[in-house]
């Protein structure tokens, strides 16, 4: 791989201050892209970026709550006023500790669907004029739990499965204009996201999990494909820990082990 696959390209990365998101921002900037990083926490966005990249040629932070449709449209339109947008990435995702079906509240269901799925629609809609102009690419981070249920809970899995539906339909509608959408669905990735589980995975499981840089590398691969190639979906699992159909973490069960638990 050269260090300049995205030279001259502009990317928007929503969730750019998180574990996987900051790895995507860094890798894209290292490969020559100008990256507009979106997140609710400006400090997290700034902390995610090596200081030498915090300038308008490399990484530009934007304080945005992507569940606010109007704000998303304003932000994307503002970026598009000044530059083309070649790649849109959303790494935004949340879950709640009380995710078991019997514990899940309607409020949590709504919040998870809004953050993990509705926001992706807002981003796609807001970026579409720009992506059509560049025959650009949308990349969304889903979850392997959309393919094989695990302990991540009904709301999270419904949202991630909905994301597959959204990106499939978006590609169906837009491919003749050269616009492609890809969902990358990882298994366990060692990020701060894991500490928010009711039962966080053990140190052993975390050590065997995917790195944020692995997922960022997959994003770079998709973003660098020739315009004639479309990869709609990619599932990536940590070899020693998970396999197709077997995405539960063996030493840290997050589903009840007895009817009373
Ligand atoms: N870690 C895993 O094992 C794993 C496995 C499979 C899939 N995933 C998926 O991978 C993605 C990234 O996860 P991660 O592990 O890197 O988690 P993370 O560190 O918690 O990152 C999530 C990011 O989403 C941002 N975010 C959340 N709500 C937002 C909102 N309303 N507006 C703007 N930004 C928002 C957060 O930023 P602020 O809170 O600062 O706004 C944060 O930067 C998620 O979609 C997750 O579902 C993770």
UniProtKB/TrEMBL annotation:
Q: Which keywords belong to this entry?
A: Oxidoreductase
InterPro entries noted in UniProt: NAD(P)-bd_dom_sf (IPR036291), SDR_DHRS6-like (IPR051122), SDR_fam (IPR002347)
Disordered as annotated region, ranges: 242-261
The family annotation for this protein states:
Belongs to the short-chain dehydrogenases/reductases (SDR) family.
Q: PANTHER family per the record?
A: DIHYDROANTICAPSIN 7-DEHYDROGENASE
What's the name of the protein? SDR family oxidoreductase
Q: Write down the species.
A: Amycolatopsis acididurans
């Amino acid at each position: 791989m050269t260090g300049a696959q995205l030279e001259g390209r502009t990317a928007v990365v929503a969730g750019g201050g998180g574990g996987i998101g900051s790895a995507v921002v860094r890798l894209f900037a290292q490969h020559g892209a100008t990256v507009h990083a979106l997140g609710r926490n400006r400090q997290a966005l700034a902390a995610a970026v090596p200081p030498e990249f915090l300038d308008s040629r490399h990484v530009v932070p934007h304080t945005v709550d992507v569940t606010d449709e109007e704000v998303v449209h304003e932000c994307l339109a503002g970026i598009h006023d000044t530059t083309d947008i070649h790649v849109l990435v959303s790494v935004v995702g949340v879950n709640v500790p009380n995710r078991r079906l019997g514990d899940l509240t309607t409020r949590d269901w709504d919040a998870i669907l809004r953050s993990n799925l509705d926001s992706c629609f807002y981003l796609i809609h807001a970026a579409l004029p720009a992506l059509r102009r560049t025959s650009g690419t949308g990349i969304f981070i889903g979850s392997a739990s959309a393919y094989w249920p695990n302990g991540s809970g009904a709301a999270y899995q419904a949202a991630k499965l909905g994301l597959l539906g959204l990106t499939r339909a978006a590609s169906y509608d837009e491919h003749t204009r050269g616009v492609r959408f890809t969902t990358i669905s990882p298994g366990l990735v060692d990020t701060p996201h894991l500490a928010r589980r009711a039962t966080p995975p053990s140190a052993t499981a975390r050590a065997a999990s995917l790195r944020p840089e692995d997922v960022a590398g997959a994003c770079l691969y998709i973003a660098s494909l020739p315009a004639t190639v479309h990869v709609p979906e990619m599932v990536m699992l940590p070899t020693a820990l998970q396999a197709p159909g077997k995405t539960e973490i063996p030493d840290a069960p997050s589903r009840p082990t007895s009817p009373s638990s």
